[in-house]
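Job type: complex structure
Entries:
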Amino acid sequence: MMVSPAGISISFGGTRGSDDDSRPVVARVFGFARDDEERPISHEMVVPAGQTVSQDLPQGMYNVQLTLPSGRILQRNVQINEDSNERYTFFEDFAPGAGFSLQETMGQADRSSLSRALSASGNSSSDEYFKALERASTIDSTTTSPLQSFRKGLRYWRTPAPASPLPAPPVHATMSLLRDPVLDMTQNDPPPSEADAIAPAELLGNGAMWRIASDRVASPDKHVRHWAHVTLPNGRVEVASLPLPWLCAASGTLSQATLLVDPARTDDAATRVAVDDAAMAGLLSFLDRGQANAAGPMLEMLERDDVIERVIRDGQNSLAACAAAYVGLAVYDPYEREIWDARLYDCMMRYPHVPDAAIVHARRAILRPQNSDDNGEAAEALRRACAAGIPYFSAGVPLLQEMLLLLSPDFPDLAPLAARAAQLAARTDLGQAFTVLRYAAPKEDRT
Amino acid sequence: MADPALLFHDPSDRDGTHVLLIGIGDYPWLEDGADYDPALHDDNAMGMGQLAAPATSIRRLADWFLDSQGFDNAERPLASLAMLLSEPTPARYDHPRAKPAARVPRGTVADVEKAVEAWVERASGRRGNALVFAFCGHGLQSGNPVLLCRDYGRSRQNRFKGAIDFEQFRIALSTRQPDQQLLLVDACRTPDAEAELLGQATPGNPLLSIFSLAGRDSAPAQQSVHFATSLYTPAWGRADGATLFNDALLAALTGGGADQTAEWWVTTSRLHSALATYLARISSQEGIVQRPAAQTQDFRICKPERIAVPLYITANEPDIWKEEVWIDAMRGGALAHSFTYKPPAGTGNPGATPCALRLVNPTQRVRDVIYGVSARFAAASRFSATPEEIIAYPPEVTCELRVSKQP
């Protein structure tokens, strides 16, 4: 008789009671086989969004931990008996927490993507936003509130400025494409909108969503860079770097970029950018959540599946290569994985128009200097990065600033570049993966 | 000159951990402050007022570093601890290992600058040293993080004269000798109200200048930076207690961040996971949202001798929480922990609120993470529960009791 191996199947069902299973997670199984309780067993694996993964295990007791893109760990205990192979679906049992990642919401097909994204972001169009606003106001009030003990807490609440009330009826942003604009890091005024506004693909409340196909920005000159110029209802302008063209590592076809603009978001950028790429989705979600350091297993899976080699070696997708490199820098010890030295150098040489390629190479070189009294190679890479323009990924902005500052005592020509990078950092929304620049409203619109 | 902030110093000639703790709760030039005049200071205050939680939180952190059951790192034991506290009256700090009846500096930016200089000097003697920097107080995001010292807002013409440019400080610190640097920032990261600051360099005092990396063999120090809250969001504290981050941090340092694959050390990457896990639960229980953020390079922080893991118990039959329930956790066949749940008086159905038990692995033996959990009820109760075997692995564990009910 054939005996099927014992084991478990793991999936993530999102927030309990919702239909949101779009988030990829990292699973770790730790436990003991029944016949050897002194030597623990440990496995780590990626659970792609909406999928189930299985792991064979000997009979015994195990603790399964899921790390979510938000960084939170969910866990449960599992008893594995002979021939047992049960499916365990994990749910997030309370609010998903602060922050919002458009990238996390990509890849679900069963609801309107705009509705899903706005719901996840706590948008003005949804009741949740007003509830949150009401709750925050209550917390700071001096009346008897269940949370009055927090009144003198660290947080403080500012009511929205009178100049930008929550508008009704809906007022949407407008968006047009900028083709290879000259964007200076120190430029205080936004670049002018050059082209006709593009109609959104979806509208809901004040929110609007655009989908921009790679072929829309296709150009015989691959080095031409495209930005989305977004004018918000209050007159402020945001300029979002479009990660296009993006060759999907899963399908081999060109992906579209998705742009969500939610004018109700006033603390961070109203504009969010994401791309559709099933193979890279997990890694990009963790990057979009600022959790690159937890995305190690995602990167290892991509390396195992040869995805990284393909995007770098075959030059399939310079931006995907850089996304992987940012995660690699966060998770690998600089003295590990020497293959990354060559990979990052190749990226920089192959993609001179992508600043991030030079940034990740410089970072690796600084963390593991070849020469104990010289960082000349890193300095040269930083000069290349600055010449190539503004990073595609927001993670590159503070890294650029940090490295320019670090090397400026030894390479004085980097000091003015560091000052420029500091100005860029102050304009960039560092809370999402792709670079979005924010500009103040024109003076005549300010109140 | 002696460092007035220094409370503990072990001059042993070996690698050690040098700690600087800053808690700023009293802000004279913010709302309700001693020198606050609404007509003069309202614009700079931006709604910020006095805080109680920073002093409580920093004192708890200092206690943990100094207690014999607290910070444990055989590779880099505690070598020095300095503290600044801004409270309405000059603060004193008492601990058996601290300088007797020490009065600590009050945390103006000048005080902080002096303390940082002395701290870096102490720690720079050995490359193998570790640094810990913790700040708790008001903060905001103005391009980069800005931390507000006691004298924030004193200068009406330059309100940030009393503030720290944290990013510049952090980068400069990475050019100093100690190889491992842990930075903990428990402050709001809400954006500055001045939209005009978009694109401008960060205000504030960087405290240190950047040294040539040639002094560090061309490589910066390893840093792990942990923020109490994510970008553009507030951090929370209790008016009559510590901050939520402080609760989570101490739970993480006492075992929640320990990992068997790292030989039960609390590492910086696991610290972040534990903080995210604990803060999700704590903030959700309080009806608010707070999610920590980090820029980590992985290194070891401490190795708690006793690893404490919170256990949350739920049941398939929520009505059990209407009764008294005795929860026992057995380890190696012996009773290790017990907890008596008493239903809150005068309420109806308390719902499925899990009850918590703190399991402590006293040995770091891997086998000691296995517990048998059982529930007992009063003789007249109609409930009985099947014992469950669990692995109490950090950061937290849940156990759902299978309860049966007699008709």
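Summary: Helices of chain B lie at 38-45, 53-66, 109-123, 166-173, 244-256, 268-285. The radius of gyration of chain B is 23 Å.
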